[in-house]
Amino acid sequence: MDLELSAQQLEALGNATRLALYRHLVRAGHAGLPVGSLQERMGIPASTLSHHLKRLVTTGLVTQERQATVLICRAHYPAMRTLVGFLADECCADEGCGSGK
């Protein structure tokens, strides 16, 4: 995985509001959530939500799809798996823990 992209994604998730927002989307599953539902759940102004969503979309962690007048937001699970894998893949690599410990 690209180190720069990983850093951008981790930085985006380093904000408490964005992390909470992302967790709502991860919990929602593949159906995602309409922006209005996200705003209601988060209890934040639309402009604030839009700002945070833009950051998550820009880093590839969230996708958006317009369905008529409704904007559906979804966690982009492949990006999430790649980021988590990036963090876990090197676990104990220098320690040589091939013994399963």
In the sheet with the most strands, the strands line up as 1-3-2
Number of helices, counting only DSSP H or I runs of 4 residues or more: 5
Task: Please state the average pLDDT score.
Answer: 93
- Low-pLDDT windows of residues: none
Order of helices and strands: HHEHHEEH
Q: How large is the radius of gyration?
A: 16 Å
Overall spatial form: elongated
Percent strand equals: 5-15%
Structural class: alpha+beta
Number of strands: 3
Largest sheet: 3 strands, antiparallel
CA-CA gap between termini: 25 Å
Please give the share of residues in helix.
Answer: 55-70%
List its salient traits.
single chain; 101 residues; alpha+beta; 3-stranded antiparallel beta sheet; 3 strands; elongated
Task: Compose a concise summary of this entry.
This protein has 101 residues and is an alpha+beta fold.
Describe this structure in words.
The structure is a single chain. The protein has 101 residues and is of the alpha+beta class. It contains 5 helices and 3 strands; from the N terminus they run ααβααββα. A 3-stranded antiparallel β-sheet has the order 1-3-2. α2 crosses α4. The longest helix has 13 residues. The radius of gyration is 16 Å and the shape is elongated.
Topology summary:
Blueprint: H1 3-13, H2 16-28, E1 33-34, H3 35-42, H4 46-58, E2 62-67, E3 70-75, H5 77-88
Antiparallel strand pairs: 1-3, 2-3
